[in-house]
Amino acid sequence: MNDPHSSCGATGPGGGATNGWFSADPDSRRFSGSGSGSGSGGKVARRRKPRRASGFPLPRPLPWPTVLGRAWPGTLIACWTVLTTCVILQPHWTTLGIVGALLAVASIAIRLPLSVAPRPPMWMISGFIGGCIGAWLGDGLEVFLRICVLAIVVLWGSGLIAWVTPTAALAAALRFFLTPLRLLGAPVDQWSLVMASALRGLPMLRDQAQAVLDTAKLRLGQDMATLSLRGYARLSVDVITAILSATSRGAAETGRAMSMRGAIEARDSVDRGARVRLGWVDAAVIAASLLGVAGIVACRLMP
In angstroms, how far is CA 69 from the centroid of its own chain? Predict the structure, then answer.
């Protein structure tokens, strides 16, 4: 069950809880036409699917139950931390292939649609092509490609956790991992509460940023293409200031509403008293992670 304060329940520009990734209407692929067989020769035209905008939207929990969603979020975080450490310390093609294969199996298991994949903007594609050309001229193309694949794998695994876990559950798991710091007098409860609020506020930050950017584009219109470097820098400062101002106001209102409802204290006591229960899904995730680490070590030790 998704948390009511999580990013899955957020609304705003970009499609609300689904952000345009998942179809909320199962009959979204309808035929458009004036009646059955009426109009121009009884032909009906399929409604054209809107094109997704380029960018990197924030991952949101999938709107259907998944296998990995039954696992404790701490298990996913711990296993992915181990795999990420291995792939960063040994960024070879074999290591990347093993971790990528595990992520592919996990994506198939949770029925991850291809529509969640981000659509890189043209400037990023051009930069990648230019980087490949520069690396090839400097005899470093293979290293450049490995770094790019490493970044994709790390982002893929991190997004996979966000796609199957509500933000409130992530905050509770982080509280569990920070518990040993209580012995040092660290304010673990306050830290976990701040992290939970920050995770829940990310969709609001994204929506406010998109609204400010759309407003700036509408006001400037064709003049945006003729701006100088100094004009772009001044526009960036104005946009960032407007985003921070709008987001701070929204965060203050949300915090006051949560304090008046008493949701912060209630949720804090519930998370503190919850027990960690591991099931067969956790055992399967741990076994797959250990198998991947064993394969990485074996590839490393083999001549």
Answer: 15
pLDDT at residue number 275: 66
Tell me the three-class secondary structure of 112-142, residue by residue. CCHHHCCECCHHHHHHHHHHHHHHHHCCCHH
- Please name the residues in contact with 166: beta carbons below 8 A apart, sequence gap of 6 or more: 1, 2, 3, 6, 8, 61
Low-confidence ranges of the chain (pLDDT < 50): 1-42, 266, 269-270
Q: Which residues make beta-bridge pairs with 46?
A: 31
pTM, whole model, 2 decimals? 0.68
What is the distance of C-alpha 58 from the center of its chain?
A: 4
Torsion angle defined by CA atoms of residues 146, 147, 153 and 154, in that order, rounded to the nearest 10 degrees:
150
At 250, phi and psi to the nearest 5? Answer: -65, -40
Which residues, listed in sequence order, are joined to residue 55 by a DSSP beta bridge? 119
HEC per residue, 68-79 = HHHCCHHHHHHH
